[in-house]
Design goal:
Layout (H helix, E strand, L loop, with lengths): L1 E2 L2 E2 L2 E5 L8 H14 L4 E5 L5 H5 L11 H5 L10 E3 L4 E4 L8 H4 L9 H10 L4 E5 L6 H8 L5 E6 L2 H20 L6 E7 L6 H13 L13 H5 L7 H4 L4 H16 L6
Amino acid sequence: MSDGGIIVTRIYTLVNQKGGVGKTTTTINLGAYLAEFGQRVLVVDLDPQANATSCLGVDKLGVKGGTYEALLGDTNIFSYVLLNERLKLSLLPSSPSLAGAEVELVDELAREMRLRKAIAPLADKFDYVLIDCPPSLGLLTVNGLMAAMDGVIVPVQCEYLALEGLGQLTQTIERVRSLLFPELSVRGVVLTMFDNRTNLSTDVVTEVNKHFPDQVFKSVIPRSVRLAEAPSYGLPISIYAPGSVGAQAYEALAKELLKSDGVKAR
């Protein structure tokens, strides 16, 4: 947000090494609503599967350049940013070539810092940068954590196995904090795929709140058919089904984040 000519850019990394927890869904839909509320938003797709890229209607096989080139030191990063005029949302896309980046970066100096350095020139062009990490705890995810200047957002599925993975993720965050980035913090936990018909979902909500007191977003994302359908149309839920319960939940999450960041929706 611009304040007296000064750009305040918030960079959040969305991470969870467990797949299928709604990480990309949260990145895309949170970003879309932040943009709808007048924020200049950049989504950075750091996943070789390029799901965030596909979810925004971009053919991952046709990507000319993106996070792969950025990680390998290409200074032409501005030319790779794609603007979705309809959503007023920008994307630094991914492609299958990103899968080779971890191997190619193994012997490079400061390899954990590549993404942070790559997106630094972009930061003052945006109010929010949301980085979507792969479902792993490898070098790409470490790059995502190192770039999380304002914290990590952790989507957690409301199922039992998600709790087990949360402990491993917490250990990784602590390791990165102690060895590389002392300022790294958990910005918040987003509870996803909540089913109010089951006791299990309610129990998971209780347990996550115990593990992360005062760090769990109040906006809970329900299990929703519309949310599952939207990616196949290359659209966020705000466009695909704006009246659905999933849309209402992500709209509430965006408002909650803006309020806690002290940002007024435009």
